[in-house]
Specification:
Blueprint (H helix, E strand, L loop, with lengths): L2 E6 L4 E8 L4 E8 L2 H13 L10 E3 L5 H6 L6 E3 L2 H11 L7 H15 L11 H34 L1 H7 L9 H9 L3 H5 L3 H10 L6 H13 L7 H35 L6 H5 L6 H11 L9 H8 L4 E5 L2 E5 L6 H17 L1 H12 L5 H22 L5 H4 L4 H8 L1
Parallel strand pairs: 1-4, 4-5
Antiparallel strand pairs: 1-2, 2-3, 6-7
Helix pairs in contact: 3-4, 5-11, 5-13, 6-10, 7-9, 7-11, 9-10, 13-15, 14-17, 15-16, 15-17, 16-17
Length: 414
């Protein structure tokens, strides 16, 4: 008799349901989210035939957490069911739209009983790959948070301090640079910036770590701050300055967090066996390569072929057809993190690979693709090549990946 397990996950307690191969509820439990509750769950599974060789599959509505890690030990298949999909399955058992936690656990168990082949278990990634995923995603979140705070600071400065924006406009990364943060900390209002002396500016640049061109940069900054700008009333300006300093503190913390996590990724990612292959691709550095590895993992059985990986990343188009109507559009349901990394990857590859640039230009000129569509097509091709290289343990080969066309070979021969 085959047994299937469904777990309705909650913050403090979980409901567990076991059904047999004909859908009969054979056991149910209400467990706590602690070591004692996990032991009750494992004992319950063992009581109904769970062994290391033949573990009972489990369906749950989350893919992370201590409970999931406990269930993933050994060879057990754990299926993370999307809550939206579980809600659709719930309608198969009752049209009254009633809902309860034990009922949801039963629904999850029956999903595996009837449609386990249609759902994908959690990948069997190595601990190193999972650690890289944690760091890469955290660094990506920190970078997004840093940019969001920088945008908020820029919006605030536009209200009362345009001189600061003009002074920082010349620098890459703008307000996120240490020099900009040191200057704003020193002169939070235009009134104080007008009284700024050259030694003060020089000292601020040195505190920010600048080594060259300090005197010329100090003179440029003083001129930018001393130009004629409109001003808020003094009391309002002082209040806005206090608000700016509070936001500047958040931005400084976000910059420090992003830099620390980036350093952690730099240390851990090269230790992975797939790192050499990933870094051999044009446009992929350590940070971006770690993000790609974090989303595709190192379980080679996760995707049956390259098409599955491309669909997961949202790189391949999707066809919607009904009757006489048919349309081919880009995918909306995808791994957003991998899709975002792919856009940056394709953009960076244009200057790192002549073949990638030629492919992009061909999509723009001959197929009349917009910029985003051409880059998505290039990402689709690079992703297929990455799948092939990882599966066969080969480094990227520019000539094999983008063989020159007949026109290019004729031009080279001439």
């Amino acid at each position: 008799m085959l047994i299937y397990c469904g777990i309705d996950w909650a913050e403090r307690t979980h409901d567990v349901a076991l059904v047999d191969d004909v859908g009969t509820l054979v056991a149910k439990r209400h467990i706590t989210d602690d070591a004692a509750g996990y032991k009750v769950l494992l004992d319950l599974l063992a009581e109904y035939g769970d062994t290391e060789e033949n573990p009972i599959p489990v369906a749950i509505e989350t893919s992370r957490g201590l409970l999931v890690d406990v269930l993933r030990t050994g060879k057990r298949s754990v299926f993370a069911i999307n809550p939206l999909a579980a809600a659709r399955y719930r309608d198969r058992h009752a049209v009254s739209r009633k809902k309860s936690d034990p009922g949801d656990a039963l629904v999850l168990a029956n999903i595996l009983r009837t449609d386990m082949h249609a759902h994908r278990p959690l990948p069997d990634d190595s601990d190193l790959a999972r650690a890289i995923a944690v760091l890469a995603r955290a660094q990506q979140d920190a970078a997004w948070n840093r940019q969001q705070l920088a945008n908020q600071l820029r919006s605030l400065l536009r209200e009362y301090y345009p001189a600061a924006l003009a002074a920082c406009a010349k620098w890459d990364n703008g307000l996120c640079r240490p020099e900009a943060r040191e200057l704003l900390k020193l002169v939070p209002t235009p009134a104080r910036a007008a009284r700024l002396t050259r030694p003060q500016v020089t000292a601020a640049l040195k505190r920010a770590g600048r080594k060259r061109g300090i005197e010329a940069e100090a003179e440029r900054l003083r001129e930018a701050f001393r130009q004629d700008w409109a001003h808020q009333p003094p009391l309002v300006e002082d209040a806005l300055g206090r608000q700016m300093l509070a936001l500047l503190g958040q931005l400084t913390a976000a910059c420090a967090a992003a830099d620390e996590l980036a350093q952690a990724v730099e240390e851990v990612f090269p230790q992975h066996p797939d790192a050499e292959i990933i870094l051999s691709f044009p446009g992929l550095g350590t940070q971006l390569g770690a993000r790609v590895l974090a989303e595709i993992g190192d379980d080679r059985t996760r995707f049956a072929d390259a098409c599955g990986l491309k669909a997961y990343a949202g790189a391949s188009p999707i066809t919607r057809a009904s009757g006489k109507k048919s349309s081919i559009t880009r995918r909306w349901v995808k791994n957003d993190r991998l899709n975002h990394a792919g856009y940056l990857w394709a953009f960076a590859s244009l200057t790192a690979s002549m073949g990638a640039k030629a492919h992009y230009r061909r999509r723009r000129d001959k197929h009349s693709d917009w910029h985003a569509a051409a880059q998505r097509n290039l990402f689709n091709r690079l992703l297929g090549q990455l799948y092939h290289c990882l599966k066969n343990r080969r480094l990227f080969d520019e000539f094999a990946a983008f063989p020159p066309s007949g026109e290019a070979l004729g031009a080279a021969a001439a």
